[in-house]
Amino acid sequence: MWTLASIGAVLVITTIYDVVQKRHAILRNFPIIGHLRYLLESFGPELRQYIVSDNDEERPFNRNQRRWVYATSKRENPYFGFGSDNRLDDDGHVFFRHSAFPCDSGAPHGELRAAKVLGAWRGRPGAFRPESVVNISGMSYGSLSGPAVEALNGGSAISGCLHNTGEGGISVHHRLGGDLVFQLGTGYFGARGADGRFCMDTFLASFSSAPVKAVELKLSQGAKPGLGGVLPAAKVTEAIAEARGVPVGVTVRSPNQHPEFDDVAGLVDFTERIADACGVPVGIKSAVGDRRFWTELAAEMARTGRGPDFITVDGGEGGTGAGPLTFTDHVSLPFRVGFAEVYEAFAEADLHEAVVFVGSGKLGFAPDAMVAMAMGVDLINVGREAMMAVGCIQAQRCHSGRCPTGVATQSKWLTRGLDPTSKAVRVANYVAGLRQELRMLAEAMGEEHPSLVDPAAVEMRIRRGELLPILDAVGYSEDAKEARISLGDVAREARVFADTMAEKA
């Protein structure tokens, strides 16, 4: 009897502790049984080694990648012992040729500013140099829970990075001090009139209500390119309706294209219209499909001297939005192939130095980010990696409304387990940790900043065991390669990079 009473008392005390503590969302949402997750996790390496999978087999993010994000976000030791468990001779493996004479930039830990000024090309009044080369990608309130958005915004405030609102408008959860990129999708949430079309007055009211540093027009995303969206009536709560400017409890649909324009000239005009009204840099976000769009856009911008200040290229690997498997697997190009096409189009138009390029789509790890920057990317956007810093365990239930960690759900019970204050610190730690590893990698290659790294020093193993410079491996034309190398010379000559070097102290 006493034994049963003791067991019961222990269970009650453990339940109370689990519900009250704020460190683990799983335990707050699932007292007692949540400990099984951590018990199984503790046996994970042994189970995978003998009967399940290797550390680098799982997808979309393998165990090694998730472990690095979790450790970095908690400021634990992110190192791995006993050497690499990757097959270094596999096709597609990337190598960085380190210098015999590494450098030490002397920059503060975790700090890494952008090399270009956003909005400089068009002379926007609100042009600025981003404080961070790593920023948070567009994930809207509605897709993510309120506490998750608060954690991302709080983390961006601590780390000095930009927080993209996603296409769901600017909510109360976006107002914890982080600088914003206000994203406008085809539904113009937070910037629409009663008819669902874009409304400049509504846009300016939203814009002026928060610390918006830039505006991004979303054409498409890697997770579901070419598709619109539907927000069921049950999910349109009062808070979501307020942020999006829609009625409460009514199903909201986003078309698959922007009602305000239907060609390249219209896109350029709409971009300039918004920029003239608000004064900050305005860019576009798109996955890469029809190649003609990019050549026409670059040609129109070169001809008129007008157009987007920045271009966010989202790879087909992107996954912060749920979509049909056909689209997630087969529509839009992978990042490296897609960005090569975009960069080539702008290099041919001699706009590769003027435009700021942003890369997204599984780039939240130093090797992938460095490859992107060697290809010509200026800023890195992270989505799912930031979600993991908040607490995501890759349960892949984002579309179900039953995310067990409270990150991608509107369930009050599940979201209560997520403490935004502590998770904001983890987001900031992750962003700073990624910046630190990027700079360490650049310094090992003899440069003070990733934008200065010679693309020829980044190589990929292809079939037959041959190593190719990354620009050749992903299909850059000779003109595009020359443009990328020349841009490196520009940075070295301090025409673009000078005040970064002067201000880093």
Can you give a write-up of this model?
The chain is an alpha/beta fold. The protein folds into 2 domains: 2-81, no CATH class; 134-503, Alpha-Beta Barrel (TIM Barrel), CATH 3.20.20.70. The chain has 19 helices and 13 strands. It has helices at 2-20, 25-29, 34-42, 44-50, 63-73, 146-159, 200-208, 238-244, 264-278, 291-304, 325-330, 335-348, 366-375, 384-390, 412-415, 420-444, 470-473, 478-492, 498-503; strands at residues 94-96, 134-136, 163-164, 180-184, 212-218, 229-231, 252-254, 282-287, 310-314, 356-360, 379-382, 458-461, 467-469. It has an 8-stranded parallel β-sheet. The protein has a 3-stranded antiparallel β-sheet with strand order 1-12-13. The protein is globular and about 85 Å long.
How is the secondary structure organized here?
Elements: H1 2-20, H2 25-29, H3 34-42, H4 44-50, H5 63-73, E1 94-96, E2 134-136, H6 146-159, E3 163-164, E4 180-184, H7 200-208, E5 212-218, E6 229-231, H8 238-244, E7 252-254, H9 264-278, E8 282-287, H10 291-304, E9 310-314, H11 325-330, H12 335-348, E10 356-360, H13 366-375, E11 379-382, H14 384-390, H15 412-415, H16 420-444, E12 458-461, E13 467-469, H17 470-473, H18 478-492, H19 498-503
Parallel strand pairs: 2-11, 3-4, 4-5, 5-8, 8-9, 9-10, 10-11
Antiparallel strand pairs: 1-12, 6-7, 12-13
Helix pairs in contact: 5-14, 5-16, 6-16, 10-12, 12-18, 13-16, 14-16
What's this, in brief?
The protein is of the alpha/beta class.
Beta-sheet strand percentage? 5-15%
For the termini, the CA-CA separation is 68 Å
Number of domains: 2
Average pLDDT, rounded to a whole number, is 88
Regarding CATH, which class of the largest domain? Alpha Beta
Query: What class, by secondary structure content?
Result: alpha/beta
DSSP summary: helix tally: 19
- Total count of strands: 13
CATH topology of the largest domain: TIM Barrel
Residue share in helices? 25-40%
Largest sheet: 8 strands, parallel
| Low-confidence runs of at least 5 consecutive residues | 493-505
Strand order of the largest sheet: 2-11-10-9-8-5-4-3
Rounded radius of gyration (Å): 23 Å
Query: CATH-wise, what's the superfamily of the largest domain?
Result: Aldolase class I
CATH architect. name of the largest domain: Alpha-Beta Barrel
Approximate shape: globular
